[in-house]
Amino acid sequence: QGYRAEMDNPAMLILMPPVLRNRKDVLFGNMPEIYDFHNKIFLHSLESCLGAPERVGFCFLDRREDFQMYEKYCQNKPRSESLWRQCSESTFFQECQRKLEHKLGLDSYLLKPVQRLTKYQLLLKELLKYSTSCDGVRELQEALVAMLDLLKSVNDSMHQISITGYDGDLSELGKVLMQGSFSVWTGHRKGPTKMKDLARFKPMQRHLFLYEKALVFCKKREEHGDGYDKTSSYSFKHFLKMNAVGITENVKGDHRKFEIWYSGREEVYVVQAQTVDLKMAWLNEIRKIL
After folding, report:
1. How many CB atoms lie within 10 A of CB 101?
2. Structural domain boundaries in the chain
3. Helix (H) or strand (E) holding 288
4. CATH number assigned to the domain with residue range 170-289, chosen from the 4 options 2.30.29.30, 2.40.110.10, 1.10.287.1490, 3.20.20.100
5. For residue 219, which of 17, 123, 179, 281 sits 20 to 30 Å off, Cα-Cα?
């Protein structure tokens, strides 16, 4: 209220930098939606558990879909931060902060929803610790899994919005299921490429995004900024449609490697994960699609 409402206050208009005008939705994202959800719905359902804490897990599961609104908030965060950096020193924000008598600036509050998201799973873990064999344990466990899934999904989509150089619309490739960095060796079957020949070449470092319909290869670029300004971007290299992909789960010489081949082994990619567990997690997701 102390900032967002003030952006509509005619008396404050004179203090507002031009770049901030009519950009309330960029700065605050869908925070009003999140606020309404908690204020009118979720808070009441949690309060109804005061006498019956075993129902907490159910509250989360019942509202699982609503929590997707956090993903929207996090996706807007880079735009919001960029706008904030341009205006943070302005008299408008200083005046709002003075009236509110806040020690912290607005950016600390804009971070709250992101922090809240990571807090839920910690609170649920804590509840589970004291709920060994009582009613509602199964729901609590499911609620924890749902919150961890949401966290992963938000994290994946945050990386995805940093992909540059892709011509089409990434949302047409479906949901991002996994993303991560790998060493990749490429062989094109123009002639017989032997695995031992591939091993001699230096691998490329690639950031892979697994969508429902495609596997996207990017090169990670570290942008240089200071502190939390440092962002990574991923420049698009190429993609493989999942309906023409095949996998070979084991490659001689290293348990962390697997092979992705395309349209009847026309192109072959040997991919090395950082750990065997990570490799298995990716193979599981790829198998589900195939």
Report:
1. 7
2. 3-159, 170-289
3. helix 276-289
4. 2.30.29.30
5. 281
pLDDT by residue (tens digit) across 210-245? 999 999 999 998 765 554 445 678 999 999 999 999
CA angle 223, 228, 230 (to 5 degrees): 5
Query: Is pTM, for the whole model, over 0.85?
Result: no
Q: How far apart are CA 25 and CA 29, in angstroms?
A: 5
Give the residue from 110, 115, 107 showing the smallest Cα distance to 85: 107
CB 256 within 8 A of CB 213: no
Angstrom distance (rounded) from CA 120 to CA 96: 30
Structure confidence by residue, pLDDT tens digits, 155-209: 888 888 889 999 988 889 998 999 999 999 987 665 555 555 555 678 999 999 9
Classify domain 3-159 at the CATH superfamily level.
Dbl homology (DH) domain (1.20.900.10)
Write the single-letter amino acid at 109.
Y
